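Collaboration report, partner site 2.

Our partner group contributed sequences for two proteins of shared interest, and the home lab folded both. The records are reproduced in the order in which they were received, starting with the first partner submission.
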Amino acid sequence: MAEAANAAVWRERGRTWAITAGSIVLALIAGAVLMVVSDPDVITQYAYLFTAPGLPLGASWAKVSSAYGALVLGAVGSPNALAATAWQAAPLICAGLGVGLGFRAGLFNIGAQGQAIWGSIAAAYLGFALQLPPVIHLIVAVIGGLIAGAIWGGIVGFLKARTGAHEVIVTIMLNYVALQALSWLLSTPAFLRPGRVDPIAPVIHDTAAFPILFRQLNVGFLVALAAAVAVWWLLDRSTLGFAIRAVGANPAAAGTAGMNVPNVTMITMALSGLLCGLAGVQYALGPGADLVATPLSIGLVGTVGFDAITVALLGRSKPLGTVLAGLLFGGLHAGGLAMQSIAQTPLTLSTVLQALIVLFVAAPALVGALLPKIKAPAATSLVGGEA
């Protein structure tokens, strides 16, 4: 019986991975169609489709192959490309782990953006305001960012557990509070760079920045991988992780079994905020495109909190899946720049590809219908339980 159960589990996992791979393939096909129909030079060739089919088909192939070739080249085509992909992926992995952890407890943490903002605020401030020895300074700045994110997420958990406030509404509102708080802080003497009136903070000290290995690899990526291992251990090897998964699967049953559901909710949201705060730390202390830390500003963390939701969904809230999804999206970000410069393809196409991938992953029945050889896995929720 045990062997049959294990075989069924592995078959289900195989179908899940097949659906994910099929979703990526379908997204690339849809992206190719968009490239063709949006290029006037290519589309005009289709006037000769029946008289000289080689012209439109050749033009389409040249357009698509050059764009996707540039995408691959910019993502994994060289050591510099790999380093850029890792740099883009690191904050996505951290925030995706945070959102995914909330999902495993049945919580919709839509506030990853605000938590990342507070993580970047605390890490950046400690990075430029303190004078400490190299290793100690980095550790202090990282811990400060983690605590800030955990507090911002813990507020949501407290309100959810003690007052019943819905975490979606609370986290969405707190995103705006965090953004406006950052805007105000950047106008205060404590954060405003001396001699400047525009909202930008001083550059952090070198002692607080993530070091770069081999002149290319950002240590922050290794920190993101370590965070993934920690989340895996927490969920699969710890008592707290079992409680998180039990509450996510059925909070009423977990409470009947003696688990303190409110406490698990608060702890989970605090840990989720901590991981999202680590994403903000990556932006505040990690190297920018010029291998120098980017100063704190309004748009420093970009849209990492919202991108993290798609990463967590694509990774199905599992640490390994989240790492792979973060690398995929990091590669799309890094390769999108090369696709724009080499193939003259809009940078927004990489964003469209991300959206299409998540769309297909969220609709396994559609993927199964378009690719009949792939059977859709049994219906499972991406939030809570063992999704």
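Second partner submission, folded after the first:
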Amino acid sequence: MHRRTRRPALTLTAVAAVAALAACSGSPGPAEGGGGSDAADEPVELRLAWWGADARHAVTQEVIDLFEAEYPHITVVGDFSDWGGYWDRLATATAGGDMPDVMQMDGQYLATYADRGALMDLGAAEGFSAGDIDEAALAAGEIDGTLYGVVNAVNSWAVVTNRTLIEAAGLEMPDDTTWTWDDLAELSVAVTQADVDGAVGLQDYALTQGTIDQFARQQGEDLWTADGELGVSEETLVAYWELALELLESGALPSAAAQTEALGVTQDQSFTATNRAAFGFWWSNQLGALQATSGQDLVLLRPPLDDDGDRGIWYRPSQFWSASASTDHPEEAALLIDFLVNSEAAGEVLLAERGTPANVTVREAVRPLLAEADQAIAEYLDSIADELDGVATLPPAGSADFENTLRRYTSEVYFGSTTPQEAAPAFIAEVQNMLG
């Protein structure tokens, strides 16, 4: 299994925050920050920061209470906000030398904070154990071999399939362990031709980063290289768009106009959620919301195999836990992270609020307590564990507009204003320029 290192993209809202972080004179490493408590009964106070809504705040506080009951000498102070305010507050606190001891971290910011020396090496920290965290998921938090973030939950690329529509069209569900792109295309055309309440086979293709990431992996390429460059060749892009055109021209897909129009709608208005498509490419953790809107029998299937039997799927972290390199209590901070990701008691409170647990033992322990859709997601992630292609790819700095650029070129190919052969080199040049 190969490991990829990535440089994450920054959202526009974080530009000022990163500038403030860059102005920081440099955070001390763990050795400079002081050790853990000298005695088990020495009082220690930790600050734990996270973003989210009220439901997340409530369950996280419950887990804090459990942790404090197990470690009475440690007091954990919660520090939470919404997504937008979180990153501004975190960067300001870091630049001012007041970083939280432990913090929820997102993939697009992980390398930025690690590169500034602000995050602890958790792989070398006393108090934290990788336990039964899936290796591929754990590696997603590594940068140049150092573990700066511990993944707390995962999802993966999947085909959300409407069994109700498939059966109404007089068809059988495919065997997703063996099906190919040809099988998906044939089934999609058959659904469209069956005209069950105007439903089509496949809701869209080639318009998202997930689809090009999976397709590139099937060709043995990385979407992003280790040094933060685009890793997709002209040949792969041409094949990618040619597949999309074949699906469009066969009737497997909605019209080009319908696909591009659907890009502007919310998830609950999508072809999948409104039962207007039998198949749709989604992240596995989106099943519950889609199911709630659809009201029909939606299931997760593996993406199709290519001609060489490669599937090109991977675990994608939902979030990470990181610790400050300047904390006065590195051992206790690592112990808190260990509890958050490895404790079954914590897992039974958190359930799937942050996603399916990355620790496979915790995942199995909480499975009976999960909602039906969350159980299906956990089962899907378990079923693909032996088929993963490397680790999650974190997009490099400068790539924030990558998906919009991909959509624009795909739309031009769909509408015939350019060919795959013409679009591929132009797209690569534009992305390279975007990355600087």
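Feedback sent to the partner group on the second submission included the following. The radius of gyration is 23 Å. The chain has a mean pLDDT of 89.
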